[in-house]
Amino acid sequence: MKKKPEMQITEAELTSLTRDLDDMHRDTLPRMQEAVAELRGERGTSRRGFLFGAAGITAGALIVAACGSDKKNTTASSGSAGSPAATSGTSGEKLTGDFAIAALAASLENLAVQTYLAGLDAATAGKLGSVPPAVATFATTVQMQHKDHAAAWNSILTGAGKSAVTGVDKTVQDAVVTPGFANVHNVVDLAKFALSLEDVAAATYLNGIQNAIQDVGAIKVAGSIQPIEMQHSAILHLLLGDYPIPDTFAKTTGARGPDDVIG
Amino acid sequence: MTIDQRAMSALIEESDDMHADSMRSTTVGLAELVEQGRDRRASGAADLDELTEYQTRRTGLLTKSLAGMGLVGVGITRLLASPASAQSSMDVQAAQTAASLENLAIAVYNQAAGLPFMQNIPDPAGATVVAFVTKTVMQHTDHMKAFNAAATQLGGKTQDKPDQTVLDAVVTPALPTLKTPLDVVKFAATLELVAAETYLAEVGAVSDKNLRNTFASIMGVENQHRAILLAVGALLEAGKPELIKLGPPADQLPAAAGSVGFPDAFLKTDQARPAAEGAVK
User: Fold this and answer.
1) In this structure, which of A115, A232, B92, B278 has its CB flanked by the most CB atoms within 10 Å?
2) A216/B231 CB distance under 8 A
3) Do B259 and A132 touch, CB atoms closer than 8 A?
4) Does the predicted interface ipTM exceed a cut of 0.95?
5) B2 CB contacts (<8 Å, ≥6 apart)?
6) Cβ(A66)–Cβ(A244) under 8 Å?
7) Are B1 and A249 within 8 A, CB to CB?
8) pLDDT score of A211
9) What pTM does this model have?
Protein backbone atom coordinates (compact mmCIF):
# COMPACT_ATOMS: atom_id res chain seq x y z
CA MET A 1 0.00 0.00 0.00
CA LYS A 2 1.31 3.37 -0.95
CA LYS A 3 2.37 5.43 2.01
CA LYS A 4 0.32 8.54 2.47
CA PRO A 5 2.45 11.69 2.21
CA GLU A 6 3.24 13.31 5.51
CA MET A 7 2.07 16.80 6.17
CA GLN A 8 3.35 18.43 9.27
CA ILE A 9 0.53 20.95 9.50
CA THR A 10 -3.15 20.13 9.80
CA GLU A 11 -5.71 21.86 7.65
CA ALA A 12 -7.44 23.30 10.70
CA GLU A 13 -4.23 24.68 12.06
CA LEU A 14 -3.26 26.15 8.74
CA THR A 15 -6.67 27.73 8.38
CA SER A 16 -6.40 29.17 11.84
CA LEU A 17 -2.96 30.54 11.14
CA THR A 18 -4.10 32.16 7.92
CA ARG A 19 -7.17 33.62 9.58
CA ASP A 20 -5.10 35.15 12.34
CA LEU A 21 -2.74 36.69 9.86
CA ASP A 22 -5.65 38.04 7.85
CA ASP A 23 -7.02 39.67 10.97
CA MET A 24 -3.71 41.34 11.56
CA HIS A 25 -3.77 42.69 8.06
CA ARG A 26 -7.17 44.20 8.51
CA ASP A 27 -5.94 45.89 11.65
CA THR A 28 -2.90 47.41 10.03
CA LEU A 29 -4.19 48.18 6.56
CA PRO A 30 -5.78 51.55 7.37
CA ARG A 31 -2.49 52.88 8.70
CA MET A 32 -0.65 51.65 5.68
CA GLN A 33 -3.22 53.29 3.42
CA GLU A 34 -2.72 56.58 5.20
CA ALA A 35 1.01 56.36 4.73
CA VAL A 36 0.71 55.57 1.07
CA ALA A 37 -1.72 58.43 0.65
CA GLU A 38 0.93 60.68 2.09
CA LEU A 39 3.39 59.37 -0.43
CA ARG A 40 0.95 60.16 -3.16
CA GLY A 41 0.61 63.62 -1.70
CA GLU A 42 4.21 64.35 -2.64
CA ARG A 43 3.27 64.68 -6.25
CA GLY A 44 4.54 67.70 -8.04
CA THR A 45 7.02 68.56 -5.35
CA SER A 46 9.68 65.92 -5.78
CA ARG A 47 13.06 66.55 -7.30
CA ARG A 48 11.87 64.77 -10.37
CA GLY A 49 8.72 66.79 -10.46
CA PHE A 50 6.32 64.36 -12.05
CA LEU A 51 2.70 63.96 -11.23
CA PHE A 52 1.51 60.54 -10.24
CA GLY A 53 -0.09 59.12 -13.32
CA ALA A 54 1.07 62.04 -15.37
CA ALA A 55 2.05 59.71 -18.15
CA GLY A 56 -1.62 59.54 -18.90
CA ILE A 57 -1.48 63.07 -20.23
CA THR A 58 1.87 62.79 -21.91
CA ALA A 59 3.32 60.37 -24.37
CA GLY A 60 1.65 57.54 -22.57
CA ALA A 61 -1.73 58.90 -23.46
CA LEU A 62 -0.94 58.61 -27.11
CA ILE A 63 0.13 55.02 -26.69
CA VAL A 64 -2.92 54.32 -24.64
CA ALA A 65 -5.13 55.81 -27.27
CA ALA A 66 -3.47 53.64 -29.84
CA CYS A 67 -4.10 50.47 -27.84
CA GLY A 68 -7.57 49.19 -28.43
CA SER A 69 -9.10 47.25 -25.58
CA ASP A 70 -9.52 44.22 -27.81
CA LYS A 71 -5.77 44.04 -28.30
CA LYS A 72 -5.10 43.52 -24.63
CA ASN A 73 -6.78 40.18 -24.48
CA THR A 74 -4.87 38.52 -27.23
CA THR A 75 -1.39 37.53 -26.17
CA ALA A 76 -0.37 35.42 -23.26
CA SER A 77 3.24 36.40 -23.06
CA SER A 78 3.45 39.89 -24.36
CA GLY A 79 4.99 41.45 -21.31
CA SER A 80 6.54 44.36 -23.07
CA ALA A 81 7.74 45.88 -19.86
CA GLY A 82 8.14 49.56 -19.74
CA SER A 83 5.59 50.83 -22.18
CA PRO A 84 3.16 53.16 -20.44
CA ALA A 85 0.17 51.57 -22.05
CA ALA A 86 -3.26 51.04 -20.58
CA THR A 87 -4.48 48.16 -18.51
CA SER A 88 -7.81 47.16 -17.13
CA GLY A 89 -8.67 46.49 -13.56
CA THR A 90 -11.47 44.23 -12.50
CA SER A 91 -13.81 47.17 -12.81
CA GLY A 92 -12.84 47.48 -16.44
CA GLU A 93 -11.67 51.05 -16.09
CA LYS A 94 -8.79 52.19 -18.25
CA LEU A 95 -5.68 53.11 -16.36
CA THR A 96 -2.71 54.92 -17.74
CA GLY A 97 0.80 55.84 -16.74
CA ASP A 98 1.76 55.12 -13.19
CA PHE A 99 -1.73 53.97 -12.35
CA ALA A 100 -1.38 51.24 -14.95
CA ILE A 101 1.88 50.19 -13.33
CA ALA A 102 0.25 50.21 -9.90
CA ALA A 103 -2.55 48.01 -11.20
CA LEU A 104 -0.06 45.65 -12.81
CA ALA A 105 1.90 45.43 -9.58
CA ALA A 106 -1.22 44.75 -7.54
CA SER A 107 -2.30 42.05 -9.98
CA LEU A 108 1.08 40.35 -9.81
CA GLU A 109 1.01 40.48 -6.02
CA ASN A 110 -2.50 39.05 -6.02
CA LEU A 111 -1.30 36.27 -8.28
CA ALA A 112 1.57 35.52 -5.94
CA VAL A 113 -0.79 35.40 -2.97
CA GLN A 114 -3.14 33.12 -4.84
CA THR A 115 -0.32 30.84 -5.90
CA TYR A 116 1.23 30.52 -2.46
CA LEU A 117 -2.18 29.81 -0.99
CA ALA A 118 -2.70 27.15 -3.64
CA GLY A 119 0.62 25.68 -2.63
CA LEU A 120 -0.38 25.64 1.01
CA ASP A 121 -3.70 24.08 0.09
CA ALA A 122 -1.92 21.40 -1.89
CA ALA A 123 0.38 20.78 1.04
CA THR A 124 -2.53 20.52 3.42
CA ALA A 125 -4.18 18.07 1.10
CA GLY A 126 -1.08 15.93 1.14
CA LYS A 127 -0.34 16.48 -2.54
CA LEU A 128 3.22 17.65 -2.06
CA GLY A 129 4.57 14.91 0.15
CA SER A 130 6.21 15.82 3.41
CA VAL A 131 6.22 19.56 3.96
CA PRO A 132 8.84 20.71 6.46
CA PRO A 133 7.83 23.43 8.93
CA ALA A 134 10.39 25.84 7.50
CA VAL A 135 8.82 25.55 4.08
CA ALA A 136 5.34 26.08 5.50
CA THR A 137 6.60 29.14 7.37
CA PHE A 138 8.20 30.45 4.22
CA ALA A 139 5.05 30.08 2.14
CA THR A 140 2.80 31.50 4.83
CA THR A 141 4.97 34.51 5.53
CA VAL A 142 5.74 35.29 1.93
CA GLN A 143 2.12 35.19 0.86
CA MET A 144 1.26 37.62 3.64
CA GLN A 145 4.01 39.96 2.52
CA HIS A 146 2.69 39.80 -1.01
CA LYS A 147 -0.71 40.62 0.37
CA ASP A 148 0.81 43.66 2.06
CA HIS A 149 2.39 44.68 -1.22
CA ALA A 150 -0.90 44.38 -3.06
CA ALA A 151 -2.56 46.45 -0.37
CA ALA A 152 0.04 49.18 -0.77
CA TRP A 153 -0.57 49.44 -4.51
CA ASN A 154 -4.31 49.29 -4.07
CA SER A 155 -4.09 52.07 -1.52
CA ILE A 156 -2.51 54.24 -4.17
CA LEU A 157 -5.23 53.38 -6.62
CA THR A 158 -8.14 53.84 -4.28
CA GLY A 159 -6.61 56.99 -2.87
CA ALA A 160 -6.75 58.44 -6.35
CA GLY A 161 -10.34 57.43 -6.82
CA LYS A 162 -9.58 54.33 -8.83
CA SER A 163 -10.85 50.85 -8.12
CA ALA A 164 -8.68 48.43 -6.20
CA VAL A 165 -7.35 45.56 -8.23
CA THR A 166 -8.71 42.32 -6.86
CA GLY A 167 -7.89 40.25 -9.91
CA VAL A 168 -4.65 38.66 -10.92
CA ASP A 169 -2.31 39.10 -13.86
CA LYS A 170 -4.20 36.80 -16.20
CA THR A 171 -1.46 36.89 -18.78
CA VAL A 172 1.04 35.41 -16.36
CA GLN A 173 -1.55 33.15 -14.81
CA ASP A 174 -2.53 31.60 -18.13
CA ALA A 175 0.92 31.39 -19.61
CA VAL A 176 2.97 30.51 -16.56
CA VAL A 177 1.10 29.72 -13.37
CA THR A 178 -1.63 27.39 -14.54
CA PRO A 179 0.59 25.15 -16.65
CA GLY A 180 3.49 25.44 -14.22
CA PHE A 181 1.54 24.62 -11.10
CA ALA A 182 0.26 21.45 -12.73
CA ASN A 183 3.83 20.20 -12.61
CA VAL A 184 4.30 20.93 -8.90
CA HIS A 185 4.39 17.59 -7.13
CA ASN A 186 6.60 18.27 -4.12
CA VAL A 187 8.13 21.10 -2.14
CA VAL A 188 11.16 21.29 -4.41
CA ASP A 189 8.90 21.80 -7.41
CA LEU A 190 6.98 24.39 -5.42
CA ALA A 191 10.16 26.22 -4.48
CA LYS A 192 11.33 26.32 -8.09
CA PHE A 193 7.96 27.53 -9.21
CA ALA A 194 7.82 30.19 -6.50
CA LEU A 195 11.30 31.33 -7.46
CA SER A 196 10.19 32.04 -10.99
CA LEU A 197 7.32 34.19 -9.73
CA GLU A 198 9.51 36.08 -7.28
CA ASP A 199 12.02 36.81 -10.01
CA VAL A 200 9.28 38.11 -12.30
CA ALA A 201 7.97 40.38 -9.55
CA ALA A 202 11.41 41.74 -8.69
CA ALA A 203 12.21 42.31 -12.35
CA THR A 204 8.92 44.08 -12.90
CA TYR A 205 9.53 46.46 -10.02
CA LEU A 206 13.06 47.18 -11.15
CA ASN A 207 11.87 47.84 -14.66
CA GLY A 208 9.16 50.09 -13.28
CA ILE A 209 11.69 52.11 -11.32
CA GLN A 210 14.16 52.32 -14.15
CA ASN A 211 11.92 52.75 -17.14
CA ALA A 212 8.26 53.21 -16.45
CA ILE A 213 7.19 54.88 -13.23
CA GLN A 214 7.25 58.66 -13.23
CA ASP A 215 6.07 59.66 -9.77
CA VAL A 216 8.72 59.68 -7.10
CA GLY A 217 6.30 58.42 -4.46
CA ALA A 218 5.42 55.42 -6.60
CA ILE A 219 9.10 54.83 -7.25
CA LYS A 220 9.67 54.70 -3.52
CA VAL A 221 6.86 52.21 -3.04
CA ALA A 222 8.27 50.01 -5.80
CA GLY A 223 11.73 50.49 -4.34
CA SER A 224 10.58 49.41 -0.92
CA ILE A 225 9.10 46.21 -2.32
CA GLN A 226 11.61 45.07 -4.96
CA PRO A 227 14.35 44.26 -2.41
CA ILE A 228 11.90 42.13 -0.44
CA GLU A 229 11.01 40.05 -3.48
CA MET A 230 14.73 39.61 -4.01
CA GLN A 231 15.09 38.36 -0.45
CA HIS A 232 12.39 35.80 -1.11
CA SER A 233 14.32 34.78 -4.19
CA ALA A 234 17.61 34.47 -2.28
CA ILE A 235 16.12 32.17 0.35
CA LEU A 236 14.53 30.02 -2.33
CA HIS A 237 17.85 29.75 -4.14
CA LEU A 238 19.47 28.71 -0.87
CA LEU A 239 16.85 26.07 -0.17
CA LEU A 240 17.22 24.72 -3.69
CA GLY A 241 20.96 24.39 -3.33
CA ASP A 242 21.88 27.23 -5.68
CA TYR A 243 24.11 30.15 -4.85
CA PRO A 244 21.60 32.51 -3.25
CA ILE A 245 22.76 35.77 -4.81
CA PRO A 246 23.58 34.84 -8.37
CA ASP A 247 23.48 38.35 -9.82
CA THR A 248 25.68 41.26 -8.81
CA PHE A 249 23.11 43.63 -10.26
CA ALA A 250 19.40 43.02 -10.27
CA LYS A 251 17.96 42.40 -13.71
CA THR A 252 14.80 43.33 -15.53
CA THR A 253 14.69 40.07 -17.45
CA GLY A 254 11.17 38.70 -17.37
CA ALA A 255 9.60 41.96 -16.26
CA ARG A 256 5.92 42.28 -17.02
CA GLY A 257 4.38 45.30 -18.64
CA PRO A 258 1.10 47.17 -18.33
CA ASP A 259 -0.29 45.46 -21.38
CA ASP A 260 -0.79 42.32 -19.33
CA VAL A 261 -4.42 41.44 -18.88
CA ILE A 262 -5.82 41.75 -15.38
CA GLY A 263 -8.81 39.73 -14.42
CA MET B 1 -0.89 12.15 8.36
CA THR B 2 1.81 12.69 10.93
CA ILE B 3 1.42 15.79 13.02
CA ASP B 4 3.79 17.20 15.52
CA GLN B 5 1.42 19.32 17.59
CA ARG B 6 4.11 21.05 19.58
CA ALA B 7 6.05 21.95 16.50
CA MET B 8 2.90 23.19 14.83
CA SER B 9 1.98 25.35 17.80
CA ALA B 10 5.43 26.80 17.88
CA LEU B 11 5.23 27.46 14.17
CA ILE B 12 1.95 29.27 14.48
CA GLU B 13 3.16 31.32 17.39
CA GLU B 14 6.38 32.27 15.64
CA SER B 15 4.58 33.07 12.47
CA ASP B 16 2.10 35.27 14.29
CA ASP B 17 4.88 37.08 16.09
CA MET B 18 6.80 37.62 12.91
CA HIS B 19 3.80 38.92 11.12
CA ALA B 20 2.91 41.28 13.95
CA ASP B 21 6.47 42.56 13.97
CA SER B 22 6.47 42.85 10.23
CA MET B 23 3.29 44.87 10.13
CA ARG B 24 4.56 47.19 12.82
CA SER B 25 7.68 47.65 10.75
CA THR B 26 5.60 48.21 7.67
CA THR B 27 3.70 51.02 9.29
CA VAL B 28 6.85 52.59 10.64
CA GLY B 29 8.59 52.07 7.32
CA LEU B 30 5.94 53.76 5.27
CA ALA B 31 5.76 56.59 7.77
CA GLU B 32 9.49 56.92 7.42
CA LEU B 33 9.19 57.07 3.67
CA VAL B 34 6.64 59.81 4.02
CA GLU B 35 8.82 61.72 6.44
CA GLN B 36 11.81 61.41 4.21
CA GLY B 37 9.82 62.44 1.20
CA ARG B 38 8.84 65.61 3.01
CA ASP B 39 12.40 66.23 4.01
CA ARG B 40 13.96 65.65 0.68
CA ARG B 41 11.38 66.75 -1.82
CA ALA B 42 11.35 69.86 -3.95
CA SER B 43 14.67 71.18 -5.13
CA GLY B 44 17.55 68.99 -6.16
CA ALA B 45 20.06 71.11 -4.37
CA ALA B 46 20.91 70.19 -0.84
CA ASP B 47 20.09 72.58 1.91
CA LEU B 48 22.99 72.60 4.35
CA ASP B 49 20.83 72.81 7.43
CA GLU B 50 18.61 70.07 6.16
CA LEU B 51 21.60 67.96 5.32
CA THR B 52 23.12 68.44 8.74
CA GLU B 53 19.90 67.66 10.50
CA TYR B 54 19.35 64.66 8.29
CA GLN B 55 22.84 63.36 8.89
CA THR B 56 22.58 63.85 12.63
CA ARG B 57 19.28 62.05 12.77
CA ARG B 58 20.48 59.12 10.68
CA THR B 59 23.74 58.81 12.54
CA GLY B 60 21.86 58.68 15.79
CA LEU B 61 19.54 56.02 14.52
CA LEU B 62 22.32 53.82 13.28
CA THR B 63 24.42 54.23 16.38
CA LYS B 64 21.45 53.50 18.57
CA SER B 65 20.60 50.45 16.55
CA LEU B 66 24.05 48.99 16.77
CA ALA B 67 24.37 49.88 20.41
CA GLY B 68 21.30 47.80 20.89
CA MET B 69 23.25 44.86 19.55
CA GLY B 70 25.85 45.40 22.22
CA LEU B 71 28.44 46.39 19.67
CA VAL B 72 30.61 48.78 21.61
CA GLY B 73 34.28 48.91 22.24
CA VAL B 74 37.61 49.94 20.85
CA GLY B 75 38.47 51.02 17.38
CA ILE B 76 40.40 49.97 14.39
CA THR B 77 42.26 52.32 12.21
CA ARG B 78 43.82 50.17 9.62
CA LEU B 79 40.89 50.10 7.24
CA LEU B 80 41.21 53.59 6.02
CA ALA B 81 42.92 56.72 5.43
CA SER B 82 41.34 60.07 4.93
CA PRO B 83 37.64 60.45 5.34
CA ALA B 84 35.17 61.29 2.69
CA SER B 85 33.15 64.44 3.01
CA ALA B 86 30.88 66.70 1.10
CA GLN B 87 31.07 68.79 -2.06
CA SER B 88 29.62 69.11 -5.56
CA SER B 89 26.14 68.22 -6.72
CA MET B 90 23.82 66.07 -4.72
CA ASP B 91 23.86 63.32 -7.31
CA VAL B 92 27.64 63.16 -7.38
CA GLN B 93 27.77 63.18 -3.61
CA ALA B 94 25.17 60.44 -3.41
CA ALA B 95 27.17 58.29 -5.82
CA GLN B 96 30.37 58.92 -3.88
CA THR B 97 28.69 58.14 -0.59
CA ALA B 98 27.45 54.88 -2.03
CA ALA B 99 30.97 54.05 -3.18
CA SER B 100 32.25 54.87 0.30
CA LEU B 101 29.74 52.45 1.81
CA GLU B 102 30.86 49.78 -0.62
CA ASN B 103 34.48 50.44 0.29
CA LEU B 104 33.53 50.12 3.92
CA ALA B 105 31.72 46.84 3.35
CA ILE B 106 34.68 45.42 1.43
CA ALA B 107 37.06 46.41 4.21
CA VAL B 108 34.84 44.97 6.92
CA TYR B 109 34.31 41.66 5.15
CA ASN B 110 38.03 41.30 4.50
CA GLN B 111 38.86 42.25 8.06
CA ALA B 112 36.30 39.87 9.49
CA ALA B 113 37.36 37.00 7.26
CA GLY B 114 40.83 37.23 8.72
CA LEU B 115 39.67 36.80 12.31
CA PRO B 116 40.88 33.47 13.75
CA PHE B 117 37.47 32.23 14.75
CA MET B 118 36.19 32.89 11.25
CA GLN B 119 38.90 30.74 9.76
CA ASN B 120 38.14 27.82 12.01
CA ILE B 121 34.47 27.26 11.32
CA PRO B 122 33.93 23.55 10.69
CA ASP B 123 32.66 22.49 7.30
CA PRO B 124 30.24 22.59 5.69
CA ALA B 125 29.57 25.95 7.32
CA GLY B 126 33.18 27.03 7.04
CA ALA B 127 33.39 26.47 3.31
CA THR B 128 29.98 28.05 2.82
CA VAL B 129 30.97 31.16 4.74
CA VAL B 130 34.24 31.49 2.85
CA ALA B 131 32.44 31.19 -0.46
CA PHE B 132 29.88 33.74 0.63
CA VAL B 133 32.46 36.24 1.81
CA THR B 134 34.51 35.84 -1.35
CA LYS B 135 31.54 36.31 -3.65
CA THR B 136 30.09 39.13 -1.58
CA VAL B 137 33.34 41.07 -1.60
CA MET B 138 33.45 40.68 -5.37
CA GLN B 139 29.91 41.93 -5.67
CA HIS B 140 30.56 44.91 -3.41
CA THR B 141 33.65 45.69 -5.47
CA ASP B 142 31.55 45.71 -8.62
CA HIS B 143 29.02 47.93 -6.91
CA MET B 144 31.73 50.34 -5.84
CA LYS B 145 32.98 50.52 -9.41
CA ALA B 146 29.48 51.14 -10.70
CA PHE B 147 28.91 54.01 -8.29
CA ASN B 148 32.28 55.52 -9.05
CA ALA B 149 31.58 55.24 -12.76
CA ALA B 150 28.32 57.09 -12.20
CA ALA B 151 30.10 59.75 -10.17
CA THR B 152 32.70 60.37 -12.86
CA GLN B 153 30.07 60.44 -15.57
CA LEU B 154 28.44 63.24 -13.64
CA GLY B 155 31.71 65.13 -13.46
CA GLY B 156 32.77 64.02 -10.00
CA LYS B 157 35.76 62.18 -8.66
CA THR B 158 35.91 58.54 -7.71
CA GLN B 159 35.59 57.72 -4.05
CA ASP B 160 38.25 55.29 -2.88
CA LYS B 161 37.75 55.76 0.86
CA PRO B 162 35.24 54.24 3.23
CA ASP B 163 32.42 56.22 4.81
CA GLN B 164 34.33 57.82 7.62
CA THR B 165 31.32 58.62 9.75
CA VAL B 166 30.11 55.05 9.83
CA LEU B 167 33.63 53.82 10.25
CA ASP B 168 34.26 56.01 13.26
CA ALA B 169 30.86 55.77 14.87
CA VAL B 170 30.01 52.17 14.16
CA VAL B 171 32.68 49.97 12.67
CA THR B 172 35.69 51.03 14.69
CA PRO B 173 33.96 50.55 18.02
CA ALA B 174 32.38 47.32 16.96
CA LEU B 175 35.11 45.29 15.32
CA PRO B 176 37.08 44.48 18.48
CA THR B 177 33.90 43.21 20.09
CA LEU B 178 33.26 40.62 17.41
CA LYS B 179 34.12 37.39 19.19
CA THR B 180 32.14 34.76 17.35
CA PRO B 181 30.94 34.02 13.83
CA LEU B 182 27.46 35.00 14.97
CA ASP B 183 28.73 38.43 16.01
CA VAL B 184 30.28 38.90 12.60
CA VAL B 185 27.20 37.74 10.76
CA LYS B 186 24.93 40.07 12.70
CA PHE B 187 27.26 42.99 12.18
CA ALA B 188 27.59 42.35 8.47
CA ALA B 189 23.83 42.07 8.17
CA THR B 190 23.48 45.49 9.72
CA LEU B 191 25.94 47.03 7.29
CA GLU B 192 24.09 45.44 4.39
CA LEU B 193 20.86 46.92 5.68
CA VAL B 194 22.43 50.36 5.90
CA ALA B 195 23.61 50.09 2.31
CA ALA B 196 20.28 48.82 1.01
CA GLU B 197 18.31 51.52 2.81
CA THR B 198 20.68 54.25 1.70
CA TYR B 199 20.28 53.20 -1.90
CA LEU B 200 16.51 53.06 -1.58
CA ALA B 201 16.53 56.60 -0.22
CA GLU B 202 18.62 57.73 -3.16
CA VAL B 203 16.43 55.97 -5.72
CA GLY B 204 13.76 58.45 -4.78
CA ALA B 205 16.07 61.41 -4.50
CA VAL B 206 18.66 61.57 -7.25
CA SER B 207 17.83 63.28 -10.52
CA ASP B 208 20.18 61.49 -12.90
CA LYS B 209 18.47 58.51 -14.49
CA ASN B 210 21.60 56.43 -14.86
CA LEU B 211 22.48 56.92 -11.22
CA ARG B 212 18.95 56.11 -10.13
CA ASN B 213 19.07 52.94 -12.17
CA THR B 214 22.37 52.01 -10.58
CA PHE B 215 20.97 52.46 -7.09
CA ALA B 216 17.88 50.48 -8.04
CA SER B 217 19.85 47.57 -9.45
CA ILE B 218 22.04 47.29 -6.35
CA MET B 219 19.74 47.87 -3.37
CA GLY B 220 18.02 44.53 -3.78
CA VAL B 221 21.32 42.68 -3.98
CA GLU B 222 22.46 44.18 -0.68
CA ASN B 223 19.14 43.12 0.77
CA GLN B 224 19.79 39.60 -0.48
CA HIS B 225 23.14 39.59 1.27
CA ARG B 226 21.28 40.57 4.40
CA ALA B 227 18.72 37.81 3.94
CA ILE B 228 21.38 35.15 3.76
CA LEU B 229 23.26 36.58 6.71
CA LEU B 230 20.06 36.61 8.76
CA ALA B 231 19.39 33.00 7.82
CA VAL B 232 22.93 31.96 8.67
CA GLY B 233 22.71 33.87 11.94
CA ALA B 234 19.50 32.09 12.86
CA LEU B 235 21.12 28.71 12.31
CA LEU B 236 24.12 29.71 14.38
CA GLU B 237 21.84 30.91 17.16
CA ALA B 238 19.89 27.69 16.97
CA GLY B 239 23.09 25.73 17.39
CA LYS B 240 22.78 24.15 13.98
CA PRO B 241 25.88 25.24 12.07
CA GLU B 242 25.88 21.94 10.23
CA LEU B 243 22.85 23.19 8.30
CA ILE B 244 24.74 26.17 6.91
CA LYS B 245 25.21 25.04 3.36
CA LEU B 246 23.62 25.42 -0.02
CA GLY B 247 20.58 23.20 -0.12
CA PRO B 248 20.24 22.45 3.57
CA PRO B 249 17.96 19.54 4.45
CA ALA B 250 14.70 21.43 4.72
CA ASP B 251 13.13 18.95 7.11
CA GLN B 252 15.86 19.66 9.65
CA LEU B 253 15.57 23.42 9.53
CA PRO B 254 13.89 25.24 12.39
CA ALA B 255 10.49 26.55 11.36
CA ALA B 256 11.64 30.13 11.79
CA ALA B 257 14.38 29.61 9.24
CA GLY B 258 11.70 29.83 6.60
CA SER B 259 11.06 33.49 7.22
CA VAL B 260 13.96 34.93 9.20
CA GLY B 261 15.62 36.18 6.02
CA PHE B 262 12.90 38.71 5.26
CA PRO B 263 11.64 40.17 8.53
CA ASP B 264 9.91 43.16 6.93
CA ALA B 265 7.37 43.36 4.14
CA PHE B 266 8.85 46.67 3.00
CA LEU B 267 12.39 47.96 2.99
CA LYS B 268 12.61 51.06 5.12
CA THR B 269 14.95 54.04 5.05
CA ASP B 270 15.42 54.74 8.74
CA GLN B 271 19.00 53.50 8.60
CA ALA B 272 19.90 55.28 5.38
CA ARG B 273 23.01 57.40 5.45
CA PRO B 274 22.91 61.04 4.39
CA ALA B 275 23.59 61.58 0.72
CA ALA B 276 26.68 63.72 1.26
CA GLU B 277 28.23 61.80 4.11
CA GLY B 278 30.76 59.90 2.05
CA ALA B 279 31.34 62.45 -0.68
CA VAL B 280 34.86 63.26 -1.86
CA LYS B 281 36.32 66.28 -0.19
Assistant:
1) B278
2) no
3) no
4) no
5) A6, A7, A8
6) no
7) no
8) 95
9) 0.74
